Give the backbone structure.
Amino acid sequence: MDIMAKSPRAAGVTFLDYTRECEKFGGKAAGLAMLPASWVPAWFGLEVAYFDSWMKTCSVPDEAVRRVIEWCDSRALGSVMLRTSGQLETIRDRGKYHSRFVPTVSEVMIREAIEAIYGQAKQLDPHDKMGIVVQQYVHSEFWGHVSNELRISPTRNQWQYEVEHPQSLRRGINSKFALRADPAWQLQLNGSPHRALRSVTSWCAENVLPRCHLEWRISGGQLHIVQLDLEWREHESGYDPTAPALTRSAPRYGDGKLSLLKLYDVGAETRWKKLENLSDFDFRAGNAAPRIYELSSDVLALSSKHPEIKRELVEEIGRVTGGELVVRTDVDQSGFPRYNLPRTDTVSDSGAVAWAELTLADLIDRGALPENVVFLVHGFIPAKASAWAYADPDSANVRIDALWGLPDGIQILPVDTYEVVTTKRKIIPTKSTFKPMFLNEGADGRWEYVQVLTSKGRTKVLRSADILEIAERTKGIADSLNQTAQIMWFCQIPADFDLGRNLPWYRSRDQLEEVRRAEDRYEDFVVRNDRDLAGVPDRKVALVYQPDAELIRNEDFLERVVSRAKELDYPVKLLGSILGHVYYRLCQVGVPVILPNAARYNRVRGRRVFGKLVRDLIPQNIAMGGESVREAELDKVDAPWALSGKIFEEIEEFLSAQDQGEKLAELADVLEVVRGLAFACGIDFADVVAAADKKRTKAGGFERRRVLLETELSAAKAEAIASSSVALAELYSPTVADNAFVIPMASAIGTIGRRPIEIAHPGLGLTLKARLERGALQLEFSLKEKPSNEPVALDGAQLSLFDSKT
């Protein structure tokens, strides 16, 4: 049975439907079958059953070859593409298998291509079963990809397309309001592929259930879709960072005298920078502090010579840490870096001593004096996440970059970025970042990358309460030091460890500067290790810095990458935080840095545009609250008009007030605007009050709500005739005249917090709804449709026109 692209079948296709097709023909064939036939080069699918036969006989079935030849002959195709279509092949496997181009259709070449595909499948994944898509070869001038995968887009309608040939180019597409491509028509181009791709992606967003990735080609002014990969949630694998953390039990710290280790008293004078760092933090204010023990080189030298001292040292380390610990190094000697010095993964007490002995020997070989080296021992800190935060004493804004797992991952992996206005305790919304993985410790204590479930990759790392705590404490530290503070935090620590929920750990002295970045216009080349570094191509590429887990803290490896990038004049692409050491190092040496996950500039967040007249001290008060303010002075000649409009704005707020206190405040605003009007016209406000009192004596005020209904000349004795109460709508009614609607000012004000005015103009066939809201007169017109004797065309009649196209 052949699987052929007929009409579009994407709408309503469930994962179960897809799986049934996939079992017969593989994933790529099942994907292509969901697309309109007019968009896809001619193709058909070879069933997985042929692969099963090949596995048993080690020979390509003659029937499979014959069917391909017959199909090609029936369409007069001289060349074809054979694409892999594995049952287990998912969107994450893009690039895993290789397609085969058959330049001349013949029995020998078709058999060889099928054999190559089957052989590769068996080698790369013995559990997969391989179908094959046989597709008409399209000689292309351009080709590339377009995708709305979760890693690329926070919404279904936001896409990114890439021109892969003839040059690398990336561009975004919003398909929400695009004209959907008609599945009955071929995809014709008018200039660049942007418009045609936007129409295709609009159709996909509407009809294809999961997110997807399309491969496209352009030939002879026509766009062809040659592959559709689907991001089914059922294919997901990885870690759910929203699940409760599985942490170790809190250690029971032993009591007793310390004879070999020294517990550091936070804030005490010390020569060791890493300990001195702790003095900068706010532990003296009652926040929980870490327990860190100094292991000197002298003690370590003694333990290496005397087994009984080593046993005592191991016992003491185990007692104070609970047996699971980390050892860090500090060197107080010129020529040694402050960053990324050797440290252990989580180790045992005996493992810590053995590691420290080897590390000390290595440092001595590199020129360190033993007395200038110290090892810092502390118990394992089971933080679920980590963060870097940056605060300036001259700014209320704090930046935080956060990621699950170990803090070293923040340097090189995509992170969440938060900005907080500390004076307002306000978290400014930032763009959603997809975080595909994080760095964590494996079961053996070694670092490893942990894959995150695709559907959870945009989950916020930190809760709002944690963000505010970290921001406010970092800002407090910066203010107390009167210096910029860039601090690394362990976050979301279990309560039974007595370290607080969020623990400041290390302060960097780097200065955060304007983000410097190179354009992202080169092909990516991932550098994970020295083997990759040796294989950097001659053509200019972007070196994506993503070292293997064991190389993350290896300063020598970073320097080799920096040296290679400078030698070739290649940019380095950094997926991680600009608060990390790697970014600063690249900037120090002048290597161009591509930052796909950072803002192009120091972004303006939480911008609000007002364009309104305000009291004189309002801009100053806002600036004191930590926000940047842009202001101007109104032209003097326009002041009376602007202030008159301001009265209506204040009256709206008065009429919307909920209690007497609010009404009092709003009446005070109305009075202040009148005072401003007097000033703008050069009139002393005291004269205004005096004139008001004089008028009040002569004509009274407005306390009795008197309404003048009408007057007339009368021969009889003139008198005021009282009437019953009236409603505002009876006094001021909107009218129509010629081509105009006439709305009295009181009628407009009467809509504040009430129903809008609604008035019909028979002559114009228009209906008007009007109301005063948010300081503006809002008008809504609707056209009354005239009855028509014309028949209304049904959608089906419209579609039949397209169906007739061949």
